[in-house]
Amino acid sequence: xxxxxxxxLSTIFLLLxxxxxxxxxxxxxxxxxxxxKLTVSEDGFGIVAGFDNAPIDIEIFTEPxxxxxxxxxADFGDQLAFYxxxxxxxxxxRPLTFLDEHSNGYSARVSNAMFLAAEGDAxxxxxxxxxxxxxxxxxxxxxxxxxxxxAEMAKRAGMSEKVANRVASGGTAVDVVDMDKxxxxxxxxxxxxxxxxxxxxxLATGEKIDIYDNDWLEKLIQS
Length: 223
Description:
six-stranded mixed beta sheet; 7 helices
């Protein structure tokens, strides 16, 4: 059970360095990736991608303007999508917005779009592709993508027109302030000394995963 701790958001540090290199994924698919589920977590502040009985469950804490988060997706995004699709991995994405300079800023809008995408008929694999698109078109310090631009990314990720239209609407899908507060409390409890993004957390072992190791995902799948 997590114990919440009150911490000022201004204390957060981005202490992670560039991560790994892309590795080719090999193997035979075990499941139909079009059936990988996509739901909102019970607390309402995470987005869960993957089959219910996936043997490995992780959380990824990520900030839309975090360059290291973009590198994580560039290096491992394809593998994450593969393992979600074949039923070996479940991911709960927990967005944060500490790099925003004002309410409804870049990170808040991208985070909200992620929850909008989770409300429709999209699959877990498509959502992972959507995350890759969002971070691949990162504009750190800029205005960020428009709602229409994020809708186009949703389409490129394979999501339906209905889901893309929901993203384009820019409607409110999550209380971003409460989301950021809750997810930061989770993140701080995992590592109060090096509290930053991206952080990958193994829900089964209750341990922070060392993503400095280029083989971390392969080792996790084989464990």
